[in-house]
Automatic annotation (TrEMBL):
Its EC number is 2.5.1.25. GO terms for biological process: tRNA modification. Catalyzes the formation of 3-(3-amino-3-carboxypropyl)uridine (acp3U) at position 20 in the D-loop of several cytoplasmic tRNAs (acp3U(20)). This is tRNA-uridine aminocarboxypropyltransferase 1. InterPro entries: DTW, tRNA_Mod/Golgi_Maint. It is found in: Nucleus. One of its GO terms (molecular function) is tRNA-uridine aminocarboxypropyltransferase activity. Residues 161-175 have a biased composition (Basic and acidic residues). Residues 63-294 form the DTW domain. GO terms for cellular component: nucleus. Residues 161-194 are annotated as: Disordered. The lineage of its organism: Eukaryota, Metazoa, Chordata, Craniata, Vertebrata. Its main location: nucleus. Belongs to the TDD superfamily. DTWD1 family.
Length: 303
C-alpha cells in the first residue's frame, strides 16, 4: 500500500474522539504506545497489501482490508483476523458528515463485532443514566476508576426519586431506605443482581471532529450521562494536526485505552493483552506510514 492509498483510506485528521487530555503525565508507555502490544500476526495484512485494492463485493467500492461503508472484510477472511470479546458493550456515535474512510471506529466494529455498535447521529438510542457512561472530557468528567462509585450514587438517587412518587411499594422501600446502611442493604438493589455487582453496561464514544462533537454532546438524549475522561495517552495517530496537542486520541485509541483502564480498575485478573488486538489494523497502518515517511526522508537525503 502506498502512502497515497493510505491517505484515501485514512486521509485527513478528522478521525478523532478529540479527547482533550492533561499532558502532564509523561509515562513511558506514552512515548511508544504501540510497542509491546500482544497482536495477532500482520502477515495477512501484508499479503492483502501486496494484492492491492479490491472491489467490495457489496458496494463495489475500491477497498483494502475492509469496506468502511459496508463494514465487511475485503481481501482478508474473518478467520484471519482477531475476534475480540470486550468486557463491556461499546457504542460509537458518528456524525453523518464524517467521511467513513477517515474513521477508525470501523476497526472496533470489525474486530469486536458482538460488542461494538456504530450509530450515525441523530439516530441514537435512549440510554439509562445509571448504567451507561459517555467518554468525553467535560467539566464534570470523572476518571475511569470512579465509574462504579458514581453510577452507584445514581442508583441510590434513582431509588430515592422513586420514593418521592406515589407507589404501591412505597412503605416497603421506605423501610429499607430508613436504615442507616440503606444503600448497602442488599434488598435495596436486589432487583438487578448483575448491575448491582457492576452497574456499567455500556460505554458511548463520539467519533467526529471537535466542532461536530460539541453538537452531538448537547443532544438531550446524552445530557445527564456520566462523563468519563481518560488518563493522558499520547496519540499515535499519524495525521494529528499541527495545532492539536498530541493527547488527542483517535476513536480506536480511545476505546482501547478506556478498556485498559477499565480492566485495571475493576477486573480481578491481571491485564494480559486481551484488548490489544483492537489496534490490529491501526498499528499496522501506523507502521506502514512510518516506513513511508522514513523512506521519503531518505530519498530527500534527510536521514
Ligand atoms: Zn462496501
Amino acid at each position: 500500500m502506498s502512502l497515497d492509498q493510505d491517505q484515501q483510506l485514512h486521509s485527513g485528521c478528522h478521525d478523532k474522539t478529540t479527547l482533550c487530555l492533561d499532558s502532564s503525565d509523561s509515562c513511558e508507555l506514552a512515548k511508544h504506545p504501540l510497542q509491546g502490544l500482544k497482536l495477532a500476526s500482520h502477515k495477512v495484512l501484508e499479503r492483502a497489501q501486496q494484492t492491492g485494492r479490491l472491489r467490495c463485493s457489496k458496494c463495489g467500492g475500491s477497498r483494502m482490508f475492509f469496506c468502511y461503508t459496508c463494514c465487511s472484510l475485503v481481501g482478508v477472511s474473518i478467520q484471519e483476523i482477531p475476534n475480540i470479546k470486550l468486557p463491556v458493550k461499546i457504542d460509537i456515535i458518528k456524525h453523518p458528515n464524517e467521511t467513513d474512510g477517515k474513521s477508525t471506529a470501523i476497526h472496533a466494529k470489525i474486530l469486536a463485532p458482538s460488542d461494538a455498535t456504530i450509530y450515525t447521529y441523530p439516530c441514537i438510542p435512549e440510554y439509562e443514566k445509571d448504567k451507561v457512561v459517555l467518554v468525553f472530557p467535560g467539566s464534570e468528567a470523572v476518571s475511569v476508576k470512579d465509574i462504579q462509585r458514581c453510577l452507584g450514587d445514581r442508583r441510590k438517587m434513582k431509588l430515592h426519586d422513586h420514593l418521592e412518587e406515589p407507589h404501591p411499594k412505597r412503605l416497603k422501600i421506605e423501610e429499607v431506605e430508613g436504615g442507616t446502611q440503606a444503600a448497602k442493604n442488599p434488598e435495596a438493589e436486589a432487583t438487578d443482581e448483575k448491575s448491582k455487582v457492576f452497574p456499567l453496561q455500556r460505554v458511548v464514544f463520539i467519533d467526529s471532529t471537535w466542532n461536530q462533537t460539541n453538537k452531538i454532546i448537547t443532544d438531550e438524549r446524552l445530557q445527564g450521562l456520566l462523563q468519563v475522561e481518560l488518563k493522558t495517552r499520547k496519540t499515535c495517530f499519524w495525521r494529528h494536526q499541527k495545532d492539536k496537542p498530541d493527547t488527542y486520541l483517535s476513536t480506536i485509541e480511545a476505546i482501547y485505552y478506556f478498556l485498559l483502564e477499565f480492566h485495571q480498575s475493576f477486573l480481578v485478573q491481571e491485564y494480559n493483552g486481551e484488548y490489544d488486538n483492537l489496534l490490529f489494523f491501526y498499528s499496522y497502518l501506523h507502521s506502514v506510514i512510518n516506513k513511508a515517511k522514513t523512506s521519503a526522508a531518505k530519498c530527500r537525503g534527510q536521514l
